[in-house]
Recover the amino acids of this structure.
């Protein structure tokens, strides 16, 4: 399978961002991509640096204008397309939602971000209700896609549940970066930790992982922090965590990466982790913490 990943910087011009993405999606399709994955909240700046009710105006219903736009693009190019949208479900009820389009432009399925951070410059709990669709793979013509979003990528449980429900790929649209007050050494530790934990999901489940991050600097509108420099580094790894592609830290990129799906089947035969799991001993994992 040929997978297209698109690493972009964003502006405050929503229509301009969509048109720029459309150009990059067309480039990936022209290079043979059957599946194209976009970064988290790609239509706009990462507005969660501040708590501001005006930003709820960026949200859209699903279906809505953006799903019409990206659905037409998927149909025109004959690709499966993974997008990341700010969903207005109802008045006062919003989600961070990944929407997957089939090659005919229809919505194959959606995933609502389950883990919602609340940290300086990442005030997502102000905007997003935790997802209620569970960890369910989305069936498409290129396979069953285990799509999650950003903060979800730190949790092995979500990846494992996707694998147990038949996911053939794990996919993470992402928006993560550095706070400039951190030392260079600390910044690099954070970036490598982010990469390593997802490579671990690939190994533990015998599945490829696709993580697509944004790049570029976005200032904090409140001036309380020095803004976020998104660290790019989008990547694709195979079922043993081996890099198939790793993007730069600070450049926009369109990459098309080939994944050998038969090899994924073979790796699971060599390392049958799902067979050997001691599920009779795992019930305590459903607890918040195990007091002594």
């Amino acid at each position: 399978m040929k997978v297209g990943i698109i690493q972009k910087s964003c502006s405050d011009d929503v229509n301009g961002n969509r048109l720029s993405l459309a150009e990059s999606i067309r480039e990936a399709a022209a290079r043979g991509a059957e599946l194209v994955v976009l970064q988290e909240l790609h239509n706009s700046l990462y507005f969660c640096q501040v708590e501001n009710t005006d930003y709820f105006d960026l949200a859209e219903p699903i279906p809505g204008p953006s799903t019409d736009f990206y659905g037409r693009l998927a149909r025109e190019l004959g690709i499966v397309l993974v997008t990341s949208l700010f969903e207005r479900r109802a008045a006062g009820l919003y989600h961070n939602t990944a929407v997957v389009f089939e090659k005919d432009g229809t919505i194959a399925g959606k995933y609502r971000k389950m883990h919602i951070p609340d940290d300086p410059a990442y005030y997502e709990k102000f905007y997003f209700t935790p997802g209620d669709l569970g960890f369910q793979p989305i069936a498409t013509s290129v396979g069953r896609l285990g799509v999650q979003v950003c903060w979800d990528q730190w949790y092995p449980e979500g990846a494992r549940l996707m694998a147990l429900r038949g996911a053939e790929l794990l996919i993470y649209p992402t928006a993560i970066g550095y706070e400039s007050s951190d030392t260079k050494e600390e910044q690099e530790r954070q970036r490598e930790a982010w990469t390593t934990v997802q490579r671990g999901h690939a190994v533990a489940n015998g599945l490829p992982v696709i993580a697509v991050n944004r790049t570029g600097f976005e200032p904090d509108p409140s001036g309380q922090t020095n803004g976020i420099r998104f660290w790019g580094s989008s990547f694709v790894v195979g079922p043993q965590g081996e890099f198939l592609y790793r993007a730069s830290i600070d450049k926009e990129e369109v990459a098309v990466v080939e994944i050998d799906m038969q090899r994924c089947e073979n790796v699971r035969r060599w390392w049958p982790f799902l067979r050997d799991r001691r599920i009779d001993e795992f019930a305590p994992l459903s607890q918040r913490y195990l007091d002594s």
